Amino acid sequence: MNLAAARTSALRFAGALAVGLLLFGVFVSAIGKSPLEVYATIFEGGFASSFAWQNTLLRAAPLVLTGLAVAIPAQAGLMVIGAEGALVLGGLATAALAAHLPGPVLLVQVLALVAGVTSGGVWLGLTGWLRARRGLNETICSLLLSYIAIAIFNHLVEGVLRDPASLNKPSTVPINDALMIGNLPGADVHWGLAIGVVCAVLAQIVLSRTTWGFALRVTGGNTRVAKMAGLSVTALLVAACAAGGAAAGLAGGIEVMAVHGAANASLIAGYGYAGILVAFLARQQPLACVPVAVLLGGIAAAGSLLQRRLDLPDATTLVLQGFLFLCILAADSIPARGFGSRRKEPAESTSATAPIIASVSPEPAAAPVAVTPPRHDVARPVASPTLVQPAA
Hints:
Blueprint: H1 3-30, H2 35-47, H3 50-75, H4 83-100, H5 105-134, H6 138-157, H7 192-209, H8 211-221, H9 223-228, H10 233-260, H11 271-281, H12 289-301, H13 303-310, H14 316-333, H15 354-360
Helix pairs in contact: 1-14, 2-3, 2-12, 2-13, 3-7, 3-10, 3-11, 3-12, 4-5, 4-6, 4-10, 4-11, 5-6, 5-10, 7-8, 8-10, 11-12, 11-14
């Protein structure tokens, strides 16, 4: 990307954010609240104190991984939005294995998280297979598979895997306290945040510095060119979706082993759908998902403060996220010349630089003209003689 294209992209992104905030301000004014007061409360609830930062980072931890679940397949030209289903299945597999698997603490933790990663990867990998083999739209497939995954989750949690002691809120058997993931040293934030940051860094390196990442980008740019180059397009599409699903499944496993302690309805918190917005705001770049997740985590953490102080519903922050998402989509659909790039002049029109270009440009060589010699063997028509009548 050259400097002009980067500047245009940055202006488009900043303009979309500004318009989204403006529309949210109009919405807040329409319900009788001061937009400036709402913005100040959001900042205070998400970033103004150590307690606010704690809530922000706790919410950002799963958002980093669900953002990767969208950003990685996007490198292959796929719009996969089924991270919510992979997350809940990953959390369910982690909870089921951790509650019944004996062994050393560290080994059980690793195996339980691997089960979550595998569950999410297989589930979203099915989306890539349907796209590559059957030609089905990956967006619709991943969304429908997400609904199916949530239904399977509810069926198992309320049925076979239900803990008999969970009366009011069905859940799986709680895992041992010794298996819970602890907090970072000197902070009240669990290790899941560090795991998400490491995954984002590794994903950025793999996608930008390895042959596999280059092949994935080529496939996303043009599938026909990738096939002509001898790349296994089917394997790349399935692997991209499986990698995204693995990230979402890891997010679900970490939520179980660091926050909830069991798989229940609290796991279906919309982190998978919020990851779509994270990936779009990050411009589908894995490393950029980290600061964007922190930003959206702070906005979400401010919901309770908005409810207590301004008597606004907790879903107000979702309205802000919705406005930002719509504006980002609208900005991506506008042609580049709408953001300051100059439209090319037609070839027949004259411009101010035309005389200069004409004066320094050499004259094009005239094309040789083929001269056909006269043919003497062709019979030419002879004029018929005119008869002159003698005068009387």
